[in-house]
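> example.struct
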């Protein structure tokens, strides 16, 4: 059994006279290290992480320009919740969510309400809480019980929705995806929706495949259910990815506040909003959709301001970075950047599809994300997990995972194209992919038989 030492050793070339020659890893050391020594130890540990530019698994932004980096450094110390000390950061936060309300075609953006969050997971939690509290308030007003709320979503929903249901005692009702129906499309919703349904989650950019769920079809199905049963069920759109793609690259698509049943929308500023992590946004169509009893007045920081968040102190720098990106790019710039990512994704998807062993599961038709399966997996001596390992040897991170529920027997591999993955890098990856396949198909490339499977929700 290989064991690792519970201390970091200081290189003799770095240690100064009288300075400790090692630092413990699981307890505070007894003595101080010089700043440059501590820096070098942390720097050397972090070298073992992957190269962010070669990480094709993550949606999270990994690059910003030098002016953004300078702005970031100037705002490291800003606390977003301290609106008395940093009133202009608070004002800029409002500029941003009002821009999003307008981008998502709210009927009256001035009457909308929004907030920044630490990411889309927190934004989804806030959206779900608003759905639950509105349902509870309506039920209480009618003298009805409030002890059995449920939330309807696709089985391909991101894990944050499972967390929401678990943490806040809501029954999750997952509509299974199938080979014929790869997303929640509104069909069979009447089998899942009842008087206890607080809302339906529609996903603009499913995490595992990048596909959009047709929000207009889901809304039409709920309209029909209301006509038949009287159940008025709102929609929350989880647009973590698509919320910053569709308005620029698919403007004809009706998915946002143009649909009256859409109550709230979230997106990730740190995904296709093109900002460093962590930043999310949520916007409600109008103020009436966020119950007042969820909003807390905060006065402990020198002034009083309303807040609706799971976190208290959190960075304000990313808010400034989002405003910077909105100013810098505008609609035309975002359309150019996002279309470039889509072009690379289409190019790669087409090349993968033409490579013999693979069959596309999704084709980057919506977001710059696509997934593929292995043709005739039972006839091959290697799996997509083995391919993922081979690509990692070249620095590329390309996850393989099983699909959820009824499709758990299907394993896919997925690529997320982000700003920074150029056509040149795409060609480099394609060469490494072909080399990896050639090795795995060769006699010496027989796989050792991997058995472990990573979680679907990467």
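> example.seq
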């Amino acid at each position: 059994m290989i064991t690792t030492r519970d201390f970091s050793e200081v290189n003799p070339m770095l240690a100064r006279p009288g300075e400790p020659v090692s630092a413990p890893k699981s307890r505070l050391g007894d003595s101080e290290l010089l700043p440059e020594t501590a820096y070098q130890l942390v720097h050397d540990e972090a070298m073992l992480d992957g190269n962010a530019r070669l990480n094709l698994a993550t949606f999270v932004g990994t690059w910003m320009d030098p002016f953004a980096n300078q702005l970031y450094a100037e705002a490291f110390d800003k606390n977003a919740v301290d609106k008395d000390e940093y009133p202009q950061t608070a004002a800029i936060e409002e500029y941003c969510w009002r821009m999003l309300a307008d981008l998502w075609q709210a009927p009256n953006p001035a009457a909308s309400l929004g907030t920044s969050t630490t990411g889309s997971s927190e934004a989804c939690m806030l959206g779900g809480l608003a759905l639950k509290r509105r349902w509870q308030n309506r039920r209480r007003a009618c003298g009805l019980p409030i002890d059995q709320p449920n939330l309807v979503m696709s089985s391909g929903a991101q894990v944050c929705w499972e967390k929401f249901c678990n943490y806040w005692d809501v029954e999750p009702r997952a509509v299974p995806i199938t080979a014929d129906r790869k997303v929640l499309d509104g069909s069979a919703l009447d089998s899942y929706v009842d008087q206890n349904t607080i809302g339906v989650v529609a996903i603009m950019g499913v995490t595992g495949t990048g596909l959009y769920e047709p929000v207009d079809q889901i809304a039409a199905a709920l309209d029909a259910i209301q006509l038949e049963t009287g159940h008025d069920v709102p929609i929350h759109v989880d647009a973590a990815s698509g919320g910053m793609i569709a308005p620029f690259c698919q403007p004809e698509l009706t998915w946002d506040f143009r649909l009256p049943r859409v109550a709230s929308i979230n997106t990730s500023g740190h995904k296709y909003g093109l900002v460093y992590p962590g930043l999310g946004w949520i916007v409600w169509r109008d103020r009436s959709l966020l119950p007042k009893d969820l909003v807390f007045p905060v006065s402990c920081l020198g002034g009083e301001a309303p807040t609706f968040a799971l976190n208290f102190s959190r960075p304000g720098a990313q808010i400034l970075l989002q405003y910077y990106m909105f100013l810098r790019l505008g609609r035309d710039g975002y359309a150019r950047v996002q279309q470039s990512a889509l072009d690379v994704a289409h190019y790669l998807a087409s090349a993968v599809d033409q490579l013999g062993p693979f069959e596309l599961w999704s084709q980057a038709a919506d977001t710059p994300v696509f997934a593929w399966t292995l043709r005739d997996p039972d006839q091959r001596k290697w799996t997509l997990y083995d391919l993922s390992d081979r690509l990692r040897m070249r620095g590329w991170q390309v996850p393989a995972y099983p699909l959820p529920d009824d499709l758990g027997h299907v394993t896919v591999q997925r690529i997320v194209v982000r700003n920074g993955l150029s056509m040149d890098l795409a060609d480099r990856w394609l060469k490494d992919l072909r080399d990896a396949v050639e090795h795995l198909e060769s006699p010496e490339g027989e796989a050792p038989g991997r058995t472990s499977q990573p979680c679907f929700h990467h």
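> remarks
The mean pLDDT is 91.
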